[in-house]
């Protein structure tokens, strides 16, 4: 049919956008609770949950409130929980990280006794929560992060976390060889079934800011000698090849939104599941803008998560996991 304007438009993509039902029908990307992972902080020696001022709505949990929040996440259908421990005492080598009764290990036991096998329970495997200098490893005489000495600490951490019953460990310190060392340490004590979620492409990002408050970090300076330069993409492909070779079961890109190109490259490359971590600063940015009335909070949250999925993530760590799972 022709109009007085001629034959065009010959195609009308808008037809598929006419109603909510039509848009839902043709949506190429969907979110479901099972692929959301909730990061949680458990702090030693507190009697009430502590608010994190730069992450409104997120708290440092007591052991008790951790159990309750984990049960709530499970009830909402969240697929996983990632636990971070905040110890009372920090020291140069991060002793609390390898104490079988340390706060993270206690939190793992608590959460598993609460949710059993209904949710995948994961733990952060890194020293920065436990060291008094705030670095992700132990330091050498010159004050540099000592890669190989740190690997020995990670091996021990993997074993105590596995002994506490965790299902998945997440080595996040960006030390060379960490995945292989953790795999060996787990296998050595018969924990072949504990999986490794590797922080494969982890960038030295300013967006980690609020997390430092969340774990009471005393870090001065930055992590640029071990985390990746935001300028680099090819470097992530190298980290990916190494992690897969060393035995990573799931690979992760972090942060998420500023690195969607990295996520897409990784997702195109691999035949293992791909995770993305929507980190503290991404959370804070949306919450702050929404609190000012500058953006629509709920729509923005869903748009960021949808975009991360669209870019290739099979699963997403997000501080909004429970809320979004309830909404879905
Ligand atoms: C390291 C670790 C960090 C985060 C997760 N694991 C901090 C860092 O590398 O500086 C950041 C998570 C976030 O910002 O939400 N233990």
TrEMBL record:
Catalytic activity annotation: 2 5-aminolevulinate = porphobilinogen + 2 H2O + H(+)
Pathway: Porphyrin-containing compound metabolism; protoporphyrin-IX biosynthesis; coproporphyrinogen-III from 5-aminolevulinate: step 1/4
Domain of life of the organism encoding this protein: Bacteria
Binding sites annotated in the UniProt record for 5-aminolevulinate 2: 280, 319
Pfam families referenced in this protein's UniProt entry, alphabetically: ALAD
GO molecular function, a single term: porphobilinogen synthase activity
UniProt keywords, alphabetically: Heme biosynthesis, Lyase, Magnesium, Metal-binding, Porphyrin biosynthesis
GO cellular component: cytosol
Binding residue positions for 5-aminolevulinate 1: 212, 223
Protein residues bound to Mg(2+): 239
A single BP term in Gene Ontology: protoporphyrinogen IX biosynthetic process
Catalytic machinery residues: 202 (schiff-base intermediate with substrate), 254 (schiff-base intermediate with substrate)
InterPro entries per UniProt: ALAD, ALAD_AS, Aldolase_TIM
EC number: 4.2.1.24
Key word Ubl conjugation present: no
Function noted in UniProt: Catalyzes an early step in the biosynthesis of tetrapyrroles. Binds two molecules of 5-aminolevulinate per subunit, each at a distinct site, and catalyzes their condensation to form porphobilinogen.
Subunit architecture: Homooctamer.
Annotated family: Belongs to the ALAD family.
Protein name, UniProt field: Delta-aminolevulinic acid dehydratase
Protein species of origin: Actinacidiphila alni
Origin organism lineage: Bacteria, Bacillati, Actinomycetota, Actinomycetes, Kitasatosporales
């Amino acid at each position: 049919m022709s109009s007085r304007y001629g034959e065009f438009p010959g195609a009308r993509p808008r037809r598929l956008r006419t109603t909510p039902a039509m848009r839902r029908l043709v949506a190429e990307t969907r979110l479901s609770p099972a692929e959301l992972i909730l990061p949680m902080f458990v702090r030693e020696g507190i009697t009430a949950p502590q608010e994190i001022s730069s992450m409104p709505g997120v708290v440092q949990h007591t052991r008790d409130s951790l159990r309750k929040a984990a049960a709530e996440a499970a009830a909402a259908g969240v697929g996983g929980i990632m636990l971070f421990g905040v110890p009372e005492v920090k020291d140069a080598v991060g002793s609390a990280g390898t104490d079988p009764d340390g706060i993270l290990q206690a939190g793992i036991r608590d959460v598993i006794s609460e949710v059993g096998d209904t949710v995948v329970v994961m733990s952060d495997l890194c020293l920065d929560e436990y060291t008094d200098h705030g670095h992700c490893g132990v330091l050498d005489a010159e004050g540099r992060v000592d890669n190989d000495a740190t690997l020995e600490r990670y091996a021990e951490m993997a074993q105590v976390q596995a002994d506490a019953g965790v299902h998945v460990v997440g080595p996040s310190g960006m030390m060379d060889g960490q995945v292989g060392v953790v795999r060996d340490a787990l296998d050595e004590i018969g924990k072949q079934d504990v999986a490794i979620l590797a922080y494969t492409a982890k960038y030295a990002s300013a967006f980690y800011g609020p997390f430092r408050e969340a774990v009471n970090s005393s870090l001065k300076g930055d992590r640029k000698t071990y985390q990746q330069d935001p300028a680099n993409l090819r470097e992530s492909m190298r980290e990916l090849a190494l992690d897969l070779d060393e035995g990573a079961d799931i690979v992760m890109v972090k942060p998420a939104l500023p690195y969607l190109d990295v996520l897409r490259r990784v997702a195109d490359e691999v035949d293992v599941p791909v995770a993305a971590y929507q980190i503290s600063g991404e959370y804070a940015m949306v919450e702050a803008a929404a609190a000012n009335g500058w953006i629509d909070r709920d729509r923005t949250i869903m748009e960021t998560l949808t975009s991360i999925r669209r870019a290739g993530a099979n699963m997403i760590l997000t501080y909004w996991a429970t809320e979004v799972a309830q909404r879905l």
